[in-house]
Write a structure and sequence with these properties.
Belongs to the 'GDSL' lipolytic enzyme family. The protein has 386 residues and is α/β, with parallel strands linked by helices. A hairpin with a 2-residue loop joins β8 and β9. The protein is built from 11 helices and 10 strands. It is 38% helix and 11% strand. The N terminus is likely disordered. The strands form 3 sheets. A 6-stranded mixed sheet has the order 2-1-3-4-5-10, with helices on one face. One 2-acetamido-2-deoxy-beta-D-glucopyranose binds next to loops.
Length: 386
């Protein structure tokens, strides 16, 4: 055991040194000036997909930044919005939004409830989106080919709201997906079955990246999955947990272990993709560490108990979700917002608050949690060290 541990640490040290050297080299290069972002994911980065395709996300969602519902499962901005701001690009329009859209600087294919793998259930069962990653990729293909057609038509006023065809290969392709493959797994599979399914989930993710590469994408910014066991929703229904079921912060340990395993395999696969896709610049971003870092250190960061929820009525095992109305024992309740949303990590029990998203974005944008450790502004440069 002892010598094994030393070997493992030795490998880690070597990787860090190589990556840091590479990061410094890349930093000497000019910023990428991405003309567009194409995003793929779930509710962590949905900026209006589900609201366009199904029912709009209601108030009080959006109230603390947009001052109205803005298609986001949050009181304000998501991490993808902070990425867009940081790259001096406008917020992304959802591809599925049929009105008031502007795709000049990219499009968002993410929808709340999306999984990497297709699921055998409808959104009306447990909120799983029909737009799994493979469908999001099909949407991207349609978007790209229709953009080409409309552009070539000439004198078309649509042009102002479309990307230039030659800009697709210069864009940043971002991903934040996998959390719902785990949540479906927790609901339907044993731990053993979910672990057995993991390589297929990761392979389907890799296929999506490969497909985009074949279509000309070069810069990929890939978020790993967060500590799903720390979402308050998971702990709502737990009454008398066995010792060791929860960690010291109240998170479900077994669920976080599964997220860590997913991330281990994802990181491994991204490493292999670097060899398979010689012209791609692939950045693996450790969002898990950012989120868990916040949850494990809330007080020092000006936040309250990480398992408390700002929006919704959650008392005595009765739950009225954020923005919903329900009657409990004959009394009407409304899932209202709290007085100080900026001190909450969880906005609605499932999704992070804008304040938390801002904190997380600050940790990941400069590359300190990435492999290679380069900031998002430089993510087009292939790292010579990797
Ligand atoms: C999908 O759901 C149907 C109906 O519940 C079931 O019969 C079928 O076996 C499921 N298929 C898979 C692949 O899970
Ligand atoms: C509603 O009634 C149930 C069963 O009688 C009880 O357990 C629960 O505490 C009640 N909830 C409220 C909010 O009064
Ligand atoms: C990145 O930002 C975080 C948070 O502001 C900071 O703690 C960290 O030192 C920064 N890292 C680099 C490499 O600039």
């Amino acid at each position: 055991m002892g010598s094994h541990k030393i070997v493992v640490e030795g490998i880690v040290v070597v990787v860090v040194v190589v990556a840091t050297v590479g990061g410094v080299e890349v930093m000497g290069l000019p910023p990428c000036e991405f003309p567009a972002i194409y995003n793929f994911g779930d509710s962590n980065s949905d900026t209006g997909g589900i609201s366009a395709a199904f029912e709009p996300i209601p108030a009080p969602y959006g109230e603390n930044y947009f001052r109205k519902p803005a298609g986001r499962d949050c009181d304000g901005r998501l991490v993808i919005d902070f990425i867009a701001e940081h790259l001096r690009l406008p917020y992304l329009s959802a591809y599925l939004n049929s009105i008031g859209t502007n795709f000049r600087h990219g499009a968002n294919f993410a929808t709340g409830g999306s999984t990497i793998r297709r699921q055998n259930e409808t959104i009306f069962d447990y909120g799983i989106s029909p737009f799994s990653l493979d469908i999001q990729i099909v949407h991207f293909d349609q978007f790209k080919s229709r953009t080409g057609d409309l552009y070539n038509r000439g004198g078309n006023s649509d042009r102002d709201k479309l990307p230039k065809p030659e800009e697709f290969s210069k864009a940043l392709y971002t991903f934040d997906i996998g959390q719902n493959d785990l949540s479906v797994g927790f609901r339907k599979l044993s731990d053993e079955q979910l672990r057995a399914a993991m390589p297929d989930i990761i392979n389907q993710f890799a296929s999506a990246v490969q497909h985009l590469y074949e279509k000309g994408a070069r810069a990929f910014w890939i978020h790993n999955t967060g500590p799903i066991g720390c979402l308050p929703v998971g702990t709502f229904y737990i009454r008398n947990p066995q010792p060791g079921f929860l960690d010291q912060f109240g998170c479900i340990k077994g669920q976080n272990d599964m997220a860590v395993e997913f991330n281990r395999q994802l990181k491994d696969r991204v490493n292999k993709l670097r060899a398979e896709l010689p012209l791609a610049a692939l950045t693996y971003v450790d969002v898990y560490t950012a989120k868990y870092g916040l949850i494990s250190n809330t007080k020092n960061q000006g936040f309250t108990d990480p398992l408390k929820v700002c929006c919704g009525h959650h008392e005595n095992y009765d739950h009225v979700w954020c923005g919903q109305k329900a009657s409990i024992n004959g009394t009407q309740y409304y899932g209202a917002s709290c007085a100080t949303p900026s001190t909450f990590i969880s906005w609605d029990g499932v999704h992070y608050s804008e304040a938390a998203n801002h904190w997380i974005a600050d940790r990941i944008l400069n590359g300190s949690l990435s492999e290679p450790p380069i900031p998002v502004t430089h993510a087009c440069h292939k790292n010579p060290g990797l």
